[in-house]
Amino acid sequence: MTDITVAAVQQPCGKDKAANLAATEQLIHQASDQGAELVVLQELHTTPYFCQTQDTAVFDLAESLQGPTRQRLAALAKELKLVIVGSIFERRMAGVFHNTALVLDADGSLAGLYRKMHIPDDPGFYEKFYFTPGDALTDQPLGGFSPIDTAVGRLGVLVCWDQWYPEAARLMALAGAQILIYPTAIGWDPADPDSEKQRQQDAWITVQRGHAIANNLPLIAANRIGHEASPDPTAGGIDFWGNSFICGPQGEMLVQANDRDPGAILARINPDRTDQLRRIWPYLRDRRIDAYQDLIRRVRDNHS
Question: By three-state DSSP, how is residue 60 classified?
Fold first, then answer.
């Protein structure tokens, strides 16, 4: 497989859904003009990050798989002849909503989708109120962690909180993923000291680079930017830290954005390096699958 040019887009998001999507489209055009064949957008890129509080009115923001975001991204993918990984707040049916990544192929068709599997529920990130976890068993032959075949290769798409779990990345790798992809919405509490902010950001970057290394796969992480106030006047909101990045299959940083500027970052990757690296760093060969049964337990022993 030849080298491909990939891009990650980061942007701030306001309350105007149409304006957010228009800004996204402009950044996709910019990436295409620079030769991008694959563009990864951030998590929930058409709306503010609405999970800071719990509000039933927010469900009105959700759309179906056939909704306007898919239609506009599909038309753009077809026009520019590139693959787009986008994100929607999906209304699957009354009472069932997902945080869903859509993969539009270079001909505008829906190559596949991924419904976020790990759902956080922390102060400022009340996602369990809004999102049903992705199906562990779906019509996809490999269940919830199934790579998606596209014109640029087989994509292992995961979403935000999934990025902290090595099991998710490993399952995608074992299913033949050629690139790991993480659309993200993560940021700081403005009240945190600078030292804690730095530790959080470093951990976020490091764990994902670790997934790239442990699976010999290139990785793309797209994160939003900007301050988003909380609807709760007693809360400080979230400062999304950006720092979208693309790294190679040994975790080498190929390109990294800053924490404030919207834009598209691009890098060249060669998926064939995975085969070369696995010959000399055979992590998958040496896995002791006979000894890992306890990984399906919540805990191994009672430590109380």
Answer: helix
